[in-house]
Amino acid sequence: MNKKYFVQIMYTAILMGLAVLTQPTAAQEQKNDQTAQTIKKALDEHTYKIDVDYMTPMKGRSRALTTLYSLEVKNDSIFSYLPYVGEAYNVPYGGGKGLNFQAPISQYESKEGKKGATEIKLKTRNEEDSYTFRITVFTNGSTQIYVQPNNRQSISFSGKMNLNDK
Asked: Residue span of the signal peptide, if any (predicted)?
């Protein structure tokens, strides 16, 4: 047998083996479908919680978060328990609340984005500032949150939908 031919056969066999190993099983596909349905239902009802585990300020280094932080939407209110690192332009003496507040949502828009993700834009205001939150929720439950305060630099977070509180 020709050495070149043997290498081609082995290469093809390895690729076929990898393709079989990386295919999701029926049980995994069913679990993924159930997760996507649970996420869609929570988003449609405007009742969901996102556990945040990573933050990316405009300036400075990104970092993993070891303390439990979250963003929660319940009907027409937002409960923001997020850390803030960045430059503030106009804040109360002592720094204020940052991104740790609860407030009514004044505007809520949701649309389907790329690859089945849901893109949410919501606006809210408290006694210190007004905020625009842009949230992307992927079908596997992972999320990206971009927060644009009026009186501070913007900041981004990533995390995962908390499906246990549903």
From this structure: 1-27
**Is the pLDDT at 139 greater than 60, yes or no?**
yes
Q: Taking a C-beta distance cutoff of 8 angstroms, is the pair 158, 62 a contact? A: no
Q: Which of 80, 99, 35, 88 is nearest to 59 (CA)?
A: 88
Classify the C-alpha dihedral 137-140-141-145 as positive or negative: negative
Helix (H, G, I), strand (E, B) or coil at 10: helix
User: Is the sign of the CA dihedral 94, 100, 106, 111 positive or negative?
Assistant: positive
Per-residue CA distances from 76 to 96, 102, 136 (Å):
24, 11, 18
Residue 81: closest CA among 106, 54, 52: 52
CA R_g for the chain = 22
Residue 5 has pLDDT above 60, yes or no: yes
Instruction: Tell me which residue has tokens 């031919």.
Output: 5
Question: Which pair of structure tokens corresponds to residue 100?
Answer: 């740790």
Fold that domain 3-161 belongs to in CATH: Lipocalin (2.40.128)
Burial class, 50, CB count within 10 angstroms (exposed 0-12 / middle 13-18 / buried 19+): buried
pLDDT at residue number 27: 66
